[in-house]
Design goal:
Radius of gyration of chain B: 14 Å
Largest sheet of chain A: 4 strands, mixed
Order of helices and strands of chain A: HHHHHHHHEHEEEEEEHEEEEEEHH
Number of helices of chain B: 4
Number of strands of chain A: 13
Helix content of chain B: 55-70%
Shape of chain A: elongated
Number of helices of chain A: 12
Strand order of the largest sheet of chain A: 6-7-13-10
Order of helices and strands of chain B: EHHEHH
Oligomer: heterodimer
């Protein structure tokens, strides 16, 4: 690689960076192997152009080059690494990307679009048959419905289809996969596959819009005194600070722990539920009786709240 | 059966001279769908596609146009395959 990058890009040695960039862009568009597929000469030419641009495309690199410090390593380690071929080459033997494209759009359809007839060569556009759509059902967990998931299902024709379930999908929603349905008749476009999503229930959890709701048991000590407790969310455990003086039914919001996608930010709503001990200890009962004598209050009276605030020292 | 060599995202970032967060952004945008997303293992196709995207960006293609061009290139490659078969 001893060719002069200025010559390769066709610019003068005193050209501005802007001129160099413009020259590079013009040549690269013309010779990029993916924009001009199938021409081996383009590939070599494009590598040469890229390398030239690496050498003088930025003021730093250019200064180095002009001082005579050619940096051949950049060519070997940089983006134009020779060991890896071009994207075009990777797609020529059923590349994943072009193939997934074919799978999701149905390559038969594409050929019909371009050539006006099916690849089977029958040449006729009149169709006497219709390939039917196939309907599938898929169960996903509550968690997957909120967070999204990737699943692989095996279609009736034995083909595997990987499907991406978007975060926040609603129960009963259908996903459509064009051309993955019935293919009985070669002279008609393949039917589509529809996958209906069934969201399984998760005990104690419900969904409201983009929010998820759940019940959190707290002890009466925690309810009265306040506490910091670990709470499960669909995005992992978080610490929740419970203020003093909460009751059963008090709702708390944990921000951003519901459906979370670009443009959607659901929360987790925690419904507190005060749980008393099932078999209270004798000593505990004694102590509580003493406390009751000192601090009794009647929550059924309208001003009970004001009374309870005193001894327990906190607003609900 | 062709054997597939995969590379970890960090290795690819180093080798391609592209910041790992840029690659993560490509994955986020679904321009790149890694060979193994859980292990962040990329195969040759992924690597070439990353290089293609950065080259397109060098050409002045903006983020809105990248997926459109990738889509057209995939379509073109598919036709090429179809024509040869």
């Amino acid at each position: 690689m001893s060719k002069n990058p200025y010559v390769i890009l066709g610019v003068k040695e005193n050209a501005t960076q802007e001129e160099i960039k413009k020259a590079y862009r013009g040549l690269a568009k013309k010779h990029h192997p993916d924009l001009n597929p199938g021409n081996k000469q383009n590939e070599a030419k494009f590598k040469e152009i890229s390398h030239a641009y690496d050498q003088i495309g930025t003021p730093e690199a250019r200064a180095k080059f002009d001082r005579g410090e050619t940096d051949e390593n950049a060519f070997n380690q940089g983006r134009q690494n020779k060991e890896w071929s071009s994207y075009y080459n990777t797609q020529q033997n059923s590349g994943r990307y072009s193939q997934s494209f074919a799978d999701s759009f149905g390559d038969e359809d594409l050929f019909e679009q371009i050539f006006g007839r099916s690849r089977s060569g029958k040449g006729s556009r009149t169709r006497s048959h219709v390939n039917e759509d196939i309907h599938y059902q898929m169960d996903i967990s509550f968690r997957e419905s909120i967070l999204g998931a990737e699943k692989v299902i095996t279609l009736a024709n034995g083909k595997n289809l990987s499907i991406k379930i978007p975060a926040g999908i609603e129960d009963g929603k259908k996903l459509r996969f064009k051309g993955q349905g019935n293919q009985e008749y070669a002279d008609a476009p393949a039917g589509d596959a529809y996958i209906q999503i069934n969201v399984q229930e998760q005990n104690g959890w419900t969904r409201k819009g983009d929010d998820v709701e759940m019940e959190l048991p707290v002890s009466f000590f925690e309810a009265v005194l306040g506490a910091e407790v670990s709470v499960p969310t669909l995005h992992g455990q978080v610490m929740l600070k419970i203020p003093s003086g909460v009751s059963t039914g008090t709702k708390m919001r944990i921000k951003g722990k519901g459906v979370l996608t670009e443009g959607r930010q659901g929360n987790q709503i925690v419904h507190l539920k005060v749980m008393t001990p099932k078999n209270p200890d004798h000593e505990l009962m004694e102590e509580l009786r003493k406390l009751q004598q000192r601090f009794a209050y009647n929550p059924r009276e309208s001003n009970a709240d004001a009374q309870s605030r005193g001894p327990f020292g906190g607003a609900p | 059966m062709k054997t597939i060599t995969t590379f970890h995202l960090l290795e690819v970032a180093r080798n391609c001279g592209v910041d790992q967060n840029v690659i993560r952004q490509f994955i986020q945008e679904q321009w790149i769908v890694p060979y193994d997303k859980n292990q962040m293992q990329l195969d040759e196709e992924d690597v070439e596609r990353i290089k293609l995207i950065t080259e397109l960006q060098d050409l002045g293609v903006n983020d809105e146009a990248v997926p459109i061009i990738l889509h057209l290139i995939d379509q073109l490659n598919l036709y090429h395959q179809g024509l040869r078969h």
